[in-house]
């Protein structure tokens, strides 16, 4: 008995050390947990034997808040908590009448491998300018990411700087006579798939049916120091199965292109962020959105550096604002599990930026970005509240099950 109590103490001590640095508080003790759409109660971890048992088996509990000790989503019975967690957690989701099996235990590993693979496209091999007998192709570095410090303030993006950027077009048909309205952004994440916001899938102008890659300007093909952009049809649209129109949760979608994209200096996927910890520091948002609330959209691809906002402060700010439209979007508050907040006074993403990336530059692999968020909603473009982004790492298992099954 003494040994069992000691083992439980060690488990709780490790759990405390792992999450003690977090500063968020989403739920109070006794609240109903809606994390992963379960029916559990937010309880002190010391009062929850089901989650203690799960931790002993090497599984991580769902944290729902922090006070003097950790709060976890607690099941009512031990059997319900761990019956499906013995070895490999599996979850089936229906999407476009297809079932995708999510292997939780290996989530993120495939994304990391693909990131390394796509990083190879930073280089190209070209014929030397002077052809000599026995000459071999020359390795050329096509990196366009600027190495200057992150200076806050919207500015024009450069050629090759965001090779993953996609411009999403909506129309009522997809033939040569289609009138295309370019209303959203997205990010290329593989040879065939783009990730965007679910609220971009269907608009008053039609469905998301087109994607332009390798572009800096809307409705232009003569960009300086630029190759011709590529416009492809979107042949499949997969909204997250738990997305509900008008809500700010699970606002993520995948768009399948009509054919594989050939990578070059101007077109290359972005890496998926698999870090489940809390973010701090700065990140870059990019898109063709409006430069002010209810203003006209930008014809040029813009970039803006934003501060990643403390999630507890973000949640409190939105609660305090008591804006009806926002309360409808987020009735359970700004969740740190599947949302990210970012802001800089006077600088923010805006209308037309929806679906575009919030990204950080990676140290390794070379010349690659990692997408941590997808532009979802905010408060009149940097007016008073942080912008809110769908947290990509939370959805990596779902993304992998579709993009790299």
From TrEMBL:
A Pfam family it matches: Trypsin
Domain Peptidase S1: 151-404
Keywords: Disulfide bond, Glycoprotein, Hydrolase, Membrane, Protease, Serine protease, Signal, Transmembrane, Transmembrane helix
InterPro entries reported in the protein's UniProt record: Peptidase_S1_PA, Peptidase_S1_PA_chymotrypsin, Peptidase_S1A, Trypsin_dom, TRYPSIN_HIS, TRYPSIN_SER
GO molecular function: serine-type endopeptidase activity
BP-aspect Gene Ontology terms: proteolysis
Segments traversing the membrane: 6-27
Top-level taxonomic group: Eukaryota
Family, per entry: Belongs to the peptidase S1 family. CLIP subfamily.
UniProt name for this protein: Putative trypsin-like serine protease
């Amino acid at each position: 008995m003494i040994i069992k109590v000691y083992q439980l103490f060690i488990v709780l001590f490790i759990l405390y050390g792992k999450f003690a640095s977090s500063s968020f508080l989403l739920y109070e003790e006794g609240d109903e947990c809606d994390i992963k759409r379960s029916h559990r109660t937010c309880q002190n971890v010391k009062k929850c034997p089901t989650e203690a048992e799960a931790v002993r088996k090497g599984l991580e509990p769902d944290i729902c808040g922090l006070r003097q000790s950790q709060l976890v989503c607690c099941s009512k019975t031990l059997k319900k908590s761990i019956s499906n967690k013995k070895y490999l957690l599996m979850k089936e989701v229906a999407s476009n009448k297809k079932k995708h099996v999510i292997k939780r235990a290996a989530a993120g590993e495939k994304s990391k491998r693909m990131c390394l693979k796509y990083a190879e496209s930073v280089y190209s091999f070209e014929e030397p300018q002077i052809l000599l007998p026995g000459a071999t192709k020359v390795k050329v570095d096509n990196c366009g990411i600027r190495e200057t410090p992150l200076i806050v303030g919207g500015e024009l993006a450069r050629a090759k700087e965001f090779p993953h950027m996609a411009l999403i077009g909506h129309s009522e048909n997809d033939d040569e006579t289609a009138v295309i309205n370019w209303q959203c952004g997205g990010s290329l994440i593989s040879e065939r798939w783009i990730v965007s916001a679910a609220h971009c899938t269907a608009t008053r102008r039609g469905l998301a049916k087109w994607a332009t890659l390798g572009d800096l300007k809307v409705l232009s093909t003569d960009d300086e120091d630029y190759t011709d952009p590529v416009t492809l049809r979107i042949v499949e649209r997969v909204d997250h199965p738990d997305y509900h129109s008008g809500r700010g949760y699970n606002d993520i979608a995948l768009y399948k292109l009509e054919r594989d994209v050939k990578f070059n200096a101007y077109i290359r996927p972005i890496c998926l962020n698999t870090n489940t910890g809390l973010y701090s520091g700065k990140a870059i948002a990019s898109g063709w959105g409006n430069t002010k609330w209810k203003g006209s959209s930008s014809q040029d691809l813009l970039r803006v550096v934003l501060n990643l906002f403390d999630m507890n402060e973000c949640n409190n700010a939105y609660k305090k604002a008591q804006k009806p439209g926002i309360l409808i979007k987020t009735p359970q508050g700004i969740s740190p599990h599947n949302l990210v907040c970012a802001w800089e006074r006077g600088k923010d993403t805006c209308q037309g930026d929806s679906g575009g990336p919030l990204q950080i530059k990676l140290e390794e692999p070379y010349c690659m970005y990692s997408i941590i968020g997808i532009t979802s909603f905010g408060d009149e473009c940097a007016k008073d509240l942080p912008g809110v982004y769908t947290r990509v790492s939370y959805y990596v298992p779902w993304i992998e099950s579709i993009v790299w099954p």
